[in-house]
Design goal:
- It is built from 22 helices and 10 strands.
- The protein is of the alpha/beta class and about 500 residues long.
- The protein folds into 3 domains: about 230 residues, MetI-like fold (Orthogonal Bundle), CATH 1.10.3720.10; about 140 residues, D-Maltodextrin-Binding Protein, domain 2 (3-Layer(aba) Sandwich); about 90 residues, Osmoprotection protein (prox), domain 2 (D-Maltodextrin-Binding Protein, domain 2).
- Helix 11 links the parallel strand 1 and strand 2.
- The chain starts with a helix and ends in a 5-residue tail after the last helix.
Length: about 500
């Protein structure tokens, strides 16, 4: 396992280096902002004691909000990406700074303050020359905790399309690549340990008993310079022609994203910024598209109908003109180049369950649901065509339901944590799993043909995109997509390599 992790990092060194730089940038930006605001708030509530219950109460309350909930709340206001991540991380980082600043200042002995006042010091002089210096050890202790917490928490930023090492972790989970998960986690841990050591050296500088202050100052100065240079090394001017492409957290979407990047950059002078695996899929990408954070992304017709337009009734491809017109009128988006494959929902049970109860269809399953546990990804339980529609159509009454990440469903069923799961018909892991895919005998699930949703504003700006995207029309079948997913999820191939190989083998860009 260790050898596999080391090999993964070495083979994809540039990938992990870029993610590390992004992680540092997001974390340090949040830490610097939180330090300034937290220090000022801590001083404020220490000097004006009547404000402390209110401000501390608000900060404590915000700190209890789950990180994912806070990110979801911020998206409508600040959009997808690093800005939202920095805002969320800053909010979480405030508590230790505010609390420790307040604690450090208010615990200074009253006689010390009186002595300073008796010597003629002004309030400002007492604050800057007595209170803050004496409170500094406590403040730095809070800073140390805050730095480690922020670096660790920054991993969740990938959920809303921000960068950082969370991208590697989330992608590893989704594509069944445990080495990538461990590599991303290990690098975050190393980064947190390094920053903790650095802040520890700063603490030693302000320790009056320390006789090696010069050495500590040199260590801190050199380390701070290197880290700052690394963190901000990716702040370059963008190329003139740049588009932003997003994908959902699914293996096939990683592959499609790489196909789009490769084709667009090869056939034009447009640079593609690819944001892979945006957590929440459509629910987070759609707001990003509306705000202009993204220019295009692969979407499924049935999802656009149900989730985005919130239409009632089952979607059929005969309704595509309605779907297309609604997107144009409501969002100024269009649908381009249906790839050709239909990734619709399905239900699968373990072979043991299928044999034991003689289950072959969705209707057969209905007679035994009270004895079985059902697992599905989070949004399936909220979709118009998801769990509720399934239960109503087939009269299911499962013993228990479990919310699972897309990348963990097959592990859960293999470990007998669940008996029944939702699947996508192009899932690569179906070929190697001990599962039986059931027949949807009432044709519950609509068509989910995959195509690209593109901002019309982007096409007006870059009309050369249209012929490039149209080259992908009807070039990928269900079995083709399932095979590509298999190569990534089971054989451990890189989505980029699989994508380019498919394009070249099938002469899509001829």
């Amino acid at each position: 396992m260790i050898e596999g992790v080391i090999e993964t990092i070495s083979i994809r060194f540039d990938f992990f280096l870029n993610l590390t730089i992004e992680h540092l940038f997001i974390s340090l930006t949040s830490i610097i902002i939180a330090c300034i605001i937290g220090l000022l708030l801590g001083i404020l509530i220490s000097e004006h004691k009547g404000t402390s219950p209110v401000i501390l109460g608000v900060v404590n309350f915000v700190y209890t909000i789950p990180a994912i909930s806070l990110l979801g709340f911020l998206i409508p206001f600040s959009g997808i990406g690093n800005t939202t991540a920095v805002i969320a991380l800053t909010i979480y980082a405030l508590l230790p700074m505010v609390r420790n600043t307040h604690t450090g200042i208010t615990n200074i002995p009253a006689e010390t303050i009186e002595a300073a006042r008796g010597m003629g010091s002004t309030n400002f002089q007492i604050l800057t020359k007595v209170k803050i210096p004496l409170a500094l050890p406590v403040i730095l202790s809070g800073l140390r905790n805050m730095v480690v917490m922020t670096i660790a928490l920054a991993g969740i930023a990938s959920f809303i399309g921000a960068g950082g090492l969370g991208v590697a972790i989330y992608r590893g989970i989704t594509t069944n690549n445990i080495e990538m998960v461990i590599a991303g986690s290990l690098l975050i841990a190393i980064m947190a340990f390094t920053m903790d050591f650095l802040v520890g050296q700063i603490e030693k500088i302000f320790d009056y008993k320390n006789k090696k202050k010069k050495k500590n100052i040199v260590i801190v100065a050199v380390a701070a310079l290197l880290i700052t240079m690394l963190a901000f090394s990716n702040m370059r001017a963008n190329d003139y022609k740049v588009i932003n492409v997003a994908t959902k957290p699914m293996t096939e979407q990683y592959i499609l994203g790489e196909m789009l990047k490769y084709a667009i950059e090869k056939e034009s002078n447009i640079k593609v910024n690819l944001t892979q695996g945006v957590g929440g899929g459509t629910s987070n990408i759609q707001p990003g598209m509306e705000k202009g954070d993204f220019d295009l992304y692969p979407e499924y017709t049935g999802t656009g109908w149900e989730v985005v337009l919130k239409k009632e009734g089952t979607y059929h491809e005969s309704d595509f003109h309605i779907l297309e017109q609604a997107y144009k009128e409501q969002f100024n988006f269009t649908w381009l180049n249906k790839y050709g494959f239909n990734n619709t929902y399905g239900i699968a049970v373990t072979k043991e369950v299928a044999d034991k109860y003689n289950i072959k269809t969705f209707s057969d399953l209905a007679r035994h649901t009270s004895k079985l546990t059902f697992g599905a990804e989070y949004d399936f339980f909220e979709r118009e065509d998801g769990y509720e529609a399934l239960v109503n159509a087939y009269h299911y009454n499962f013993k228990r339901t479990v919310d699972l990440d897309i990348g963990l469903k097959y592990k859960a069923v293999a470990q007998n944590k669940v008996d029944v799961i939702t699947i996508f018909t192009t899932d690569g892991q179906l070929e190697s799993s001990n599962l039986v895919v059931l027949e949807d005998d009432k044709n519950l699930y609509p068509s989910y043909l995959c195509a690209n949703v593109v901002r019309l504003e982007t096409l007006d700006k870059y009309p050369e995109l249209i012929p490039i995207l149209e080259k992908f029309t009807n070039t990928i079948s269900d079995s083709d997509m399932a095979q590509m997913n298999y190569l990534v999820e089971i054989e451990g191939r890189e989505p980029k390599d699989v994508a380019i190989e498919y394009i070249e083998n099938n002469k899509i860009l001829k």
